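Task: sequence design from structure.
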């Protein structure tokens, strides 16, 4: 009995925890998605990278991730606002890896404006990329996961999937929607070994946030340090940014066998922001 417990929690005879698994991570050429892809690769999973960027840089990233971890790493440039592109990415991943065990819906964009001036096309783009893409990707992979009796869906939502801020109507609506979607899928997969959880980060140090800091400092003519202290970390009690490594470590845990009972959760990783 004790041996069984030790082998389940320990390093499994030298095997990496996600060896033999394969994952699609959307929006993984940068920031949180990249951090999660790196953590899954280190844990032994084959990974399909996705996202925009310079092709040469992406190829360098792909090949080093594969070589460093001795796993298969592929890249697909699918635009998450296109259902057809998402379905083709799933076909390519299944053909290359044999199956898709893990789906990380991470790609996301932001636009900040008061409701009266919020551009309708920005609303549509945020809904498509931050919410509908998760539906298309899960729909294309879910039944096969259920048939195999193992699947892991992780939706990168946000603290804004749990609470709101002004001027972020589309983002807040999409992230709340993503949390609801997470719960519905958890119920549908529960008897089949397929879990579905949302990670809800507070502010994480990524290119997306760095650009917002620069924009606010310039447009309000205030110092960068003041923007960080008085705007970004104002509501984050730890007074530090969360890290992409923290998102990666949680994702690896959620993909493991010991997280089999954890499903339908919206997990804040926000330095206590939503504890207020
Ligand atoms: P980021 O800008 O660093 O990375 C976004 C990634 O998504 C990039 O790889 C980009 O190429 C990709 N992407 C954007 N549009 C795409 C599209 N149409 N199709 C395919 N890929 C696309 O951003 P990030 O900060 O790492 O954010 C990642 C996710 O985490 C987003 O869903 C975001 O809402 C969420 N999030 C971020 C924070 C934060 O503080 N950084 C906090 C909470 C939630």
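Answer:
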């Amino acid at each position: 009995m004790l041996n069984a417990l030790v082998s389940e929690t320990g390093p499994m005879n030298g095997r990496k925890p996600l060896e033999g698994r394969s994952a699609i991570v959307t929006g993984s050429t940068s920031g949180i998605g990249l951090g999660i892809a790196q953590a899954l690769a280190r844990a032994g999973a084959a990974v399909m990278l996705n996202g925009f960027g310079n092709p040469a840089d992406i190829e360098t990233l792909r090949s080093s991730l594969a070589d460093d971890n001795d796993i298969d790493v592929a890249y697909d440039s699918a635009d998450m606002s296109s259902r057809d592109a998402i379905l083709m990415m799933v076909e390519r991943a299944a053909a290359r890896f044999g199956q898709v065990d893990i789906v990380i819906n991470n790609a996301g964009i932001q636009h900040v404006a008061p409701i009266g001036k919020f551009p309708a096309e920005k609303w549509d783009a945020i809904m498509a990329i931050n919410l509908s893409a998760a539906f298309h990707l899960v729909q294309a992979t879910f039944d096969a996961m259920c048939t195999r009796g193992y699947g892991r869906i992780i939706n990168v939502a946000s603290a804004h999937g749990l609470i709101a801020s002004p001027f972020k109507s589309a983002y807040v609506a999409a992230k709340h929607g993503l949390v609801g979607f997470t719960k519905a899928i958890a119920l549908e997969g529960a008897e089949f070994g397929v879990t579905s959880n949302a990670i809800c980060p507070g502010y994480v140090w990524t290119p997306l946030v760095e650009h917002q800091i620069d924009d606010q400092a310039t447009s309000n003519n205030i110092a960068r340090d003041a923007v960080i202290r008085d705007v970004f970390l104002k509501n984050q009690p730890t007074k530090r940014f969360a890290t992409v490594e923290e998102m990666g470590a949680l994702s690896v845990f959620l993909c493991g066998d010991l997280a089999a009972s954890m499903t339908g959760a919206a997990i804040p990783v926000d330095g206590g922001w939503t504890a207020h």
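The longest helix spans residues 120-148.
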